[in-house]
Amino acid sequence: MVMLAIPVVRAQFCFSPEQPQLGQVVSFTYSPQTTPLAADSTIEGRYVRYGAPNAMQLSQPTSVALTRVGNEYVGQLVLPKREVAGLMLLFRNSKQPKRADLNKGQLYVIPVCDATGRPVPHATGGQASVFTRSHFIYEAGAKYDPNWVVTLYEHEILQNPDLRPQYWSDLLAAQVKQRKPGYGPKVKAGIESYLASRPTPTSAELTTAAQLYESMGDFPKANALRERQKLIEPTGSLVQKDRSMAIRNESDWTRKKIAYQAFLTEFPTSSYLPALTVLMTDGYFKNNDIKGLITFVDQQPASHIDALMLNTMAFQLADERRSLPEAEVLIKRAMDVLKTQPKPKTAVGNWETEKQTRQRQLLNTYARTLEQQGKYTEAYPLYQAFINPDDIENSDPRVTERYFLCALRTNHVAEAQPMAEAAVQIGKATPSLKTALRDWYAKQPGNTVAKADAYLTNLEADLRADLRDELQQLLINEPAPAFSLTDLQGRTISSSAFKGKVIVLDFWATWCVPCIASFPAMQQAQTRFQSDPNVRFLFVNTREGGPVQRVHNFMNKNTYNFVVPLDTQQKVSNAYKVQGIPTKVVIGPDGRVRYRTIGYSGNPETTVNELSMVVEMLKEGK
Questions:
Q1: Owning domain of residue 395
Q2: Does residue 207 register a pLDDT over 70?
Q3: 18 and 157 belong to one structural domain
Q4: From its record, what is one biological process in GO terms (predicted)?
Q5: What's the pLDDT score for residue 249?
Q6: Rounded to whole angstroms, how far apart are CA atoms 433 and 421?
Q7: Pairing of strands 535-542, 502-508
Q8: Total-model pTM
Q9: Confidence at residue 58, expressed as pLDDT on a 0 to 100 scale
Q10: Which residue among 70, 144, 465, 503 has its CA within the 20 to 30 Å range from the CA of 34?
Q11: Is residue 436 domain-resident?
Q12: How far from each other are the two terminal CA atoms of the chain, in whole angstroms?
């Protein structure tokens, strides 16, 4: 019998009995002298059991207690009674785990022997599996030596030829990783030789062979093997994958439905079916076949349903006020699925916590579907169930608005009022919520519209003060260059005509998307001061890069009552240091530039509030 020489210094690591058998207790002695741990005093052992390749995933690294005796460490391990071919150990500093002795990368081995003293099958090949099929070596921050792994596999197959079916692909994969000169032809010859030795290769063997070819970049041979595999298993995974991809790539909705139904009939337990079902669910929605969607979803097991997808669909339908009864059905199904749903592979962290978060999302959608149908009495308790009055800072302003409006319609304002007020106070209230709160307050006994305005102003007092302080820091003081431009009506617009007034200049162009997006907010700001003769808004068209008629056409299509001076030569925008558009410039009554901002935040209310505050501050002479 040929024995593999494992270079372990006997005085460094030895064990007893020297030919241990299954079920026996093995005592070992480790001497760290001449090892990387020679100067360490806190040493522990780590070991992993090994056996046949398909059993490696069952073995987890485990610590073993060591007792120091002089300069050596002793310990004991119990060999299991079955399915183990040996143990592999490393030693490390228990306080600095990356400081380890790996026996020059080969680890310390206790192979199991049979009654005759011969190493049992897998006693050598299993060592290679520890390197290639477990993370044990990586735990110590090391990598294995492909040359040593190839040696171990070759020795196992030489000693136990009947185990070749279990090791042939691992050996060839190791040779690919080894990358010795000429490895490609050698590995390919090994693949062909093995397959030729099998009268009827299994599907798994063909799959493995195809993967080996792919690892070397030989995709034609890999594909040829997969086609061969399809012939062996006409209803196997590869055929299912091809059919699944065909359904995904089918652009015609009618043909896609037919193909899916055929797939479901032929492969009712396919692993591809859940993802295909989610795909079809999305298809019904995107094709606006809501009735068909309800029927389809009703036929599916919970494991094939994406609760968050149904939630998104139901909320969109509710928000758009279409198919509301169907939206209610969808969200109810989503809630039922979530109750029994196991942790998805995509979920991270604590599943129960994540599940509660998703439940809140679904409750929000359920409340929205009921509210949009006028079922306020049913919707209000749902809002109460998921809304958190103590976390208004992180709440969605739109949800707070809907909660308060629902409370209004169900005579529960007293419960919702504190949260609405808090939202206003910290700037997390929508304009609709503030209007609803003010209008409700005005209707209370003894109140007036003036009192309601004062009530709202008082709620926003701290917020306005903070905004005022913030904007005060942003005020500038630069000369305002004189200008004279012609507007779209042919009128002369001259800065000299606005002495003593606050002038808001908005530099824009028709091609500028952010400029146009900011116009509704700018309209609101202009409307706020429309009765004030000391405030003027001018929407200076600049950098247009096209015919003036384009500006005329834009203004004719829209209802903005803007004064639009034309800065066709960009002289005014350059004079006012406009670096990009949209740029808003505010000139104070003293004729000096006091404020400049570029871009658009996308928040109309913020734009209106900030610009209005600047205008008011300048009117006050700040």
A1: 387-459
A2: yes
A3: yes
A4: response to stress
A5: 96
A6: 10
A7: parallel
A8: 0.66
A9: 65
A10: 144
A11: yes
A12: 99
- Residues making up the chain, counted from first to last: 622
Which helix (H) or strand (E) element contains residue 48?
strand 43-50
- Asked whether residue 149 is domain-assigned, the answer is yes
Tokens of 314: 């139901």
**316: pLDDT confidence band, cut at 50, 70 and 90?**
very high
Span 184-201, mean pLDDT?
Answer: 94
**pLDDT value of position 199:** 86
Q: Are residue 516 and residue 591 in the same domain, yes or no? A: yes
- CA torsion angle 314 318 323 324 (round to 10): 100
Q: Do the beta carbons of residue 500 and residue 508 sit within 8 Å?
A: no
The one-letter code for the residue type at 292 is: G
**Predicted confidence band of residue 8 (pLDDT cuts 50, 70, 90):** very low
Strands (E), 61-119: 62-64, 67-69, 72-78, 86-93, 100-101, 108-111
Phi/psi-derived region of residue 577, left when phi > 0, alpha when psi is between -120 and 50, beta in every other case: left
Q: Which phi and psi (to 5°) does residue 440 adopt?
A: -65, -45
The predicted pLDDT at position 367 comes to 97
Q: How far apart are CA 297 and CA 290, in angstroms?
A: 10
In a domain, 530, yes or no: yes
Q: Quick: pLDDT tens for 330-371.
A: 999 999 999 998 888 777 888 988 999 999 999 999 999 999
pLDDT at 4: 59
Helix/strand/coil (H/E/C) assignment for every residue in 8-45 = CCCCCEEEECCCCCCCCEEEEEECCCCCCCCCCCCEEE
CATH, residue 611: 3.40.30.10
Cis peptide, bond prior to residue 220, ω within 30 of zero: no
